[in-house]
Amino acid sequence: MKIRDLSLFFKALVLILNLGVGAVAWAVQPDEILSDPALETRARSLSQELRCLVCRNENIDESHAELARDLRVLVRERLQEGDTDTEALAFITARYGEYVLLMPRATGANWVLYLSGPLMLIIGAGLAFLFVRRRSVAPDEAPLSVQDQAQLAGILAQAQKSELKDPPQ
Amino acid sequence: MIVELGHFTLILALMVACVQMILPMIGAQTGRRSLMATAVPTAILQLILIGVSFAALTYAFVQSDFSLRIVVENSHTLKPMLYKISGVWGNHEGSLLLWVLILALFGASAALFGGNLPHKLRARVLSVQGSIGVAFLAFMILTSNPFERLTEPPFNGNDLNPLLQDPGLAFHPPFLYLGYVGMSMAFSFAIAALIEGRVDAAWGRWVRPWTLAAWVFLTIGIAMGSWWAYYELGWGGFWFWDPVENASFMPWLIATALLHSAIVVEKRESLKSWTMLLAILAFGFSLIGTFIVRSGVITSVHAFANDPERGVFILMILAVFMGGALMLYAARASTLETKGVFGLVSRETALVLNNLLLAVSCFVVFVGTIWPLVAEMLWQRKLSVGAPFFDAAFSPFIVLLALALPLGSILAWKRGKLGRSFGQLWGALVLAIALGALVFALQTGRSALGPVGAALGAWVVFGAVNDMWGRTGRGAVRLGRLLRLPRADWGRGFSHAGLGVTVFAVSAITAWQSEDIRVVQLGETFPLGAYMITLDAVEDAPGPNYAAQIATMIIHANGQEVNRLYPEKRFYPVQGMPTTEAAIDQGFFRDIYLVLGDKQEVGGWAVRSYLKPFANWIWGGCLMMALGGFLSLSDRRHRVAAGARPTQGQPHEN
Q1: Which of B47, B74, B93, B593 satisfies CB 3.0 to 4.6 Å to B146 for a cystine?
Q2: Is the whole model's pTM more than 0.90, yes or no?
Q3: Rounded to 5, what percent of chain B is helix, strand, coil?
Q4: Given A10, A99, A117, which is nearest B393 (Cβ)?
């Protein structure tokens, strides 16, 4: 099922790369890495929240596209200039639009996205509970009479004997 | 000539499918045996006709017949034979042909092995199966004909996408389709039962093997796709929450729920109407998956709007089948009387909880997958929903599921005792917490994900072991009895333990993997965890249909050579596309994953290396789940009882 989409996507990718510099960049390059490991760690985790705009469902940390490289460099520049994570994300979102965020912002209609799961769980759990309770309050069978109990004991004893001879399969 | 024959049999198959859809259903409604009897030969004939058609297309690919459009677009004379064959289904039209082939395969097996089903039920099942065949064969012939000829054939083809020229991916689609399309059996059984208005334990027993088989294939298919992504895409990711992946994951979640609820139908005659709904939804999600992937709607709404023919056709198939099925369900579900009575604490309740969590988690994945589409259509808001969202929204469900599983699987049917069942699990709980604490002590200053994942995975695995051991009763001969437990019990143990292994592995690799990106000169050595890695040489090497640069990298540990790896960069000239072939030293506890990057202008090569702990356990767990399903499928209770029951238990065959 993947096949056609992947092939379309890669055809698009090849096209884009051919229009660009020509050389193919592969994800994070050695020359992009910041010397400060703490900043670099933050940059890496921010990169995983940002989408490569010309790819399908790839974050900029993993993407091979030139544009993703530009974005990675931009994230690092912002962090070096002292931005917090939120500020850096806000800066990039202001430039590239909401589309760039892989975790959509919980504003406006997006609340539906965030709340539909928990709401469904609550509704489902409520329905399931009602169902189970209705099942469990159905009339109990009458307790066994003394005669029945004696008969049952006999059957069980016999079953145990036969099981000893012929263990369960 | 052979190609024309394939084209002809495909059209013939559509005609036969029409007969298979109409006559048996009329027969079942009016009670005419002669009409019902047409179901079996038409189902078998359909398989033969589509089989011939598929063979003809394969022949065209093997022969590189460039008068066929899809051969030109997806093949090349220099391509290795394996990929010429896998090229048959490596494209839109061919993959649909595989889809209908597998559909016909399931239909014919139901016809051949369904001799013990009541005649009416079998006729209706095959009729519904035939109607699915009609829809998809018509879709193929009208919008996506694989046998379309070109008036001026070129001398050579465009080659298959290089990323797909890989043995792992060559066999990934067939497994996935066996799973997807297998859900059609559960659907057909559900529709037939709703028309008949009768669902009993026997129905649960008949439908379970089919669902189980489809589920096993789907599990293997998803695992193969994930493994392929891991070694082929070049950075060792194994799951991306891509719409196309979600399309296969949603039916899997619903099918898992269906497997469990069908047990309740079979053993306790309860949850009937819910099980019907799941059977309909499982196939519904397969269709939605087909729609998502085949219409291109997720890639871009505009691409879909510009070329809507295929998408609209699939949407119509989806609307007709789901709309029709759900209307039938609404009309008939209330007549399905539930018999079983059970307490608040019981295996039944545990399985309801399992179904609730699986169904809602599937709903969450579904909403996340289509949200960008909805937001753009309704509010012109262009946004993305990616891995961070799904990780956060989906994981809680798996955690809850894993927490509840060991307890739920040992609760007694009908009326369980929480305290008593929990008492049996003390050992598993203590072991799991101890393991989590040990992991916490060993790792310093890292996230809580590792220890929590380890404890959770161990809880599920030990819980499964405890479940098996608990079935052996008392006394000295327990070990012997363990080996003689029914295979269905072993299947359950394996599947549940497999889930635990996968849960652990996913948290372990996410929490503990380490990565190194640097420029390495020839002959230079650099550290990766406890290993030393040397870039020994980089050489040019030609491949059959590509040019490659192959690096030789030597891995040392404690001064001893561990392995030599040969990561590659390839260039496929026909498609003008470069790929990386990562080299992996696979180990039981860790993978060493090496990727060769670009040659640097200042000298040396960019090299990326990863240490991925417990990587193989991810797919090992999936294989355990699939093996469990297979063991359960081979249980003689399924085979014998499924056959013996109807002949004795259904004397009033009308």
Answers
A1: B93
A2: no
A3: 65, 10, 25
A4: A117
